[in-house]
């Protein structure tokens, strides 16, 4: 409020009532514009821990930096920092949590119950479960790449009503994760292509063993400095192959 309307002094009755109900009164300068203050509050978040204030774009940039530097654990910690909600990221059989927790969480998706939508335009869904006399609610978004669900990003709900920035952060993390995982899959496909070309050239073209040995280093293949390379066609168990050529010679299965 502006004290301009009260001749520059807070009326005693207002101060008494505010103290009685523990209601804060903020004295604004006369030039302050209420809409500008409301817009600032709407477009910025403040962390409980460090009292930092950032807008959604700055928060997304911080999450990106944490993800690039510390992987999914860094992402989980940044999301927890700015949402105040316990964050869990599941990737296949691995999970990352902030803050770290020993307690079990119902990671089996088949146990999740979905009462309704999250409430905003978001990829997240609201879930709950009753387990061991405990009622747990959370929001979760699927990490889906090429029609395969590889995991989830989960925010454990507390007593507060989540604001829309929480879902903006969650959706951004899903987008960032998809981009990274698609890039990794593409890199893996390229490496497999190089390996197939290497094996085709090594087995069916005339080239020096020394040249192929040097190229093998970048593909995680190992060629003995001395010895023979044997190509075995057919379906053999690894144990059988080890008995035939020796365990120390079997470096893996080539497909």
| Amino- and carboxy-terminal Cα gap | 73 Å
Beta-strand residue percentage: 15-25%
- Average pLDDT works out at 78
Query: Which residue ranges are poorly predicted, with pLDDT under 50 across at least 5 consecutive positions?
Result: 247-255
Shape: elongated
Quickly count the helices.
Answer: 6
Main pleated-sheet profile: 5 strands, antiparallel
Helix content: 40-55%
Compute the gyration radius: what is it?
A: 29 Å
Q: What topology, given as strand order, has the largest sheet? A: 4-3-7-6-5
Give the structural class. Answer: alpha+beta
- How many beta-strand runs? 7
Return the string of H and E elements: HHEEHEEEEEHHH
Walkthrough of the structure:
This protein has 255 residues and is α+β, with helices and mostly antiparallel strands. Helix content is 41%, strand content 17%. The chain is built from 6 helices and 7 strands; from the N terminus they run ααββαβββββααα. The chain has helices at residues 12-21, 34-43, 56-83, 164-204, 209-216, 238-245, and strands spanning 44-46, 53-55, 87-91, 94-98, 125-131, 134-145, 148-156. A 5-stranded antiparallel beta sheet has the order 4-3-7-6-5. A two-stranded antiparallel ribbon has the order 1-2. A hairpin with a 2-residue loop joins β6 (134-145) and β7. α3 crosses α4. The longest helix is centred in the last third of the chain and has 41 residues, at 164-204. It is elongated, with a radius of gyration of 29 Å. Mean pLDDT is 78; it is low at 247-255.
């Amino acid at each position: 409020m502006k004290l301009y309307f009260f001749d520059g002094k807070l009326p005693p009755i207002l101060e008494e009532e505010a103290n009685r109900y523990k209601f804060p009164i903020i004295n604004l300068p006369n030039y302050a514009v209420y809409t500008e203050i409301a817009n600032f509050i709407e477009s910025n978040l403040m962390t409980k821990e460090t009292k930092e204030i950032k807008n959604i774009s700055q928060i997304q940039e911080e999450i990106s930096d944490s993800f690039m530097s510390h992987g999914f654990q860094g992402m989980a910690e940044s999301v927890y920092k700015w949402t105040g909600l316990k964050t869990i990221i599941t990737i296949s059989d691995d999970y990352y949590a902030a803050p770290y927790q020993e307690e079990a969480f119902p990671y089996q998706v088949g146990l999740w119950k979905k009462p309704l939508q999250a409430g905003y335009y978001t990829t997240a869904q609201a879930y709950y479960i009753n387990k061991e006399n405990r009622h747990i609610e959370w929001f979760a978004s699927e990490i889906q790449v090429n029609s395969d669900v590889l995991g989830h990003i989960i925010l454990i709900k507390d007593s507060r009503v989540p604001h829309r920035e929480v879902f903006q952060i969650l959706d951004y993390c899903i987008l960032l994760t998809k981009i990274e995982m698609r890039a990794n899959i593409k890199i893996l496909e390229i490496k497999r292509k190089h390996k197939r070309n290497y094996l085709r050239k090594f087995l069916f073209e005339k080239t020096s063993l020394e040249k192929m040995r040097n190229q093998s280093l970048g593909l995680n293949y190992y060629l003995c400095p001395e010895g023979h390379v044997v190509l075995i066609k057919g379906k053999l168990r690894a144990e059988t192959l080890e008995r035939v050529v020796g365990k120390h010679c079997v470096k893996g299965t080539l497909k």
